[in-house]
Design brief:
single chain; alpha+beta; Rossmann fold; two-stranded antiparallel ribbon; 4 helices
C-alpha cells in the first residue's frame, strides 16, 4: 500500500468506516529498520509506532517456530461480544500464534491468549490480547490474531467470532467496547525473550 493509500484508509476509518483485520494484518508497517534479525521488533515503540498499527491496536513480533502450530487456550474476556454467544471460557484452539506488542491503551480485549505451558521463547510472557475491538475516531476496528490455518476457516468458533467482528465493525451488531486492557491482560506490555539467532 502506498503512503497515500494508507493515509486514505486511516482517514476513512477515523471518519466512520469499519475495519476488520485478521492474522497478518498486524505484520505490516513495522517500525524501521526491520532488520533480518528482527531486533527492532522486540522494542516497544509506543507513540513512534506506525499510524496504521496504532489504528489496528497492536503489532506482530514473531510466531513460534518449533512448533509453529500448537494448541493453546483462549480466555473469553467478553462473552457478550457478537459471535461468542454460548461460548464458555477457555476455548482450546490450534493456531500459528502471533506474539504481539505495543497494544493501544484503549483496547477492548475480547480474547486473551493464555501463554501458560506454551512452547517457544515468544510465548514466555504473561497472557496477552489475541482478539480485540476499539474505536478509532468514529470508526469501529476489530482484529483477531487467528486465521493462519486453512482448516480454521471452517471452524465454527472462529467463523462465528469473525462474523461477529464484521457485523460489529459495519454497525449491524452492537457491543459495549469499554476499555479493559489492564484488567484482561495485566502483563500486556511484557516483551518476550528474543528468538535465538540461527546456528
Amino acid at each position: 500500500m502506498s503512503p497515500k493509500g494508507k493515509e486514505g484508509l486511516l482517514d476513512a476509518v477515523r471518519n466512520g468506516m469499519g475495519f476488520v483485520g485478521v492474522h497478518a494484518a498486524s505484520d505490516t508497517f513495522h517500525t524501521p529498520p526491520d532488520t533480518p534479525d528482527l531486533a527492532n521488533r522486540y522494542i516497544a515503540h509506543g507513540e513512534q509506532q506506525d499510524p496504521y498499527l496504532k489504528m489496528l491496536g497492536g503489532e506482530f513480533i514473531i510466531h513460534g517456530r518449533e512448533p509453529r502450530l500448537q494448541d493453546a487456550n483462549l480466555i473469553v474476556n467478553d462473552p457478550k461480544f457478537p459471535g461468542l454467544e454460548g461460548v464458555t471460557s477457555p476455548v482450546s484452539f490450534n493456531e500459528e500464534w502471533y506474539s504481539l506488542k505495543d497494544f493501544t491503551p484503549d483496547l477492548h480485549v475480547i480474547l486473551t491468549l493464555d501463554t501458560h505451558g506454551m512452547k517457544g521463547e515468544c510465548y514466555q510472557r504473561a497472557p496477552y490480547p489475541a482478539t480485540w475491538a476499539r474505536m478509532h475516531g468514529k470508526g469501529r476496528v476489530f482484529y483477531t490474531a487467528m486465521g493462519d490455518r486453512p482448516e480454521n476457516w471452517k471452524n465454527e468458533f472462529f467463523l462465528n467470532l469473525l462474523a461477529g467482528g464484521i457485523r460489529w465493525s459495519i454497525g449491524d451488531a452492537s457491543a459495549q467496547v469499554k476499555v479493559n486492557l489492564k484488567e484482561a491482560a495485566p502483563g500486556y506490555a511484557e516483551i518476550p525473550p528474543k528468538y535465538p539467532p540461527a546456528k
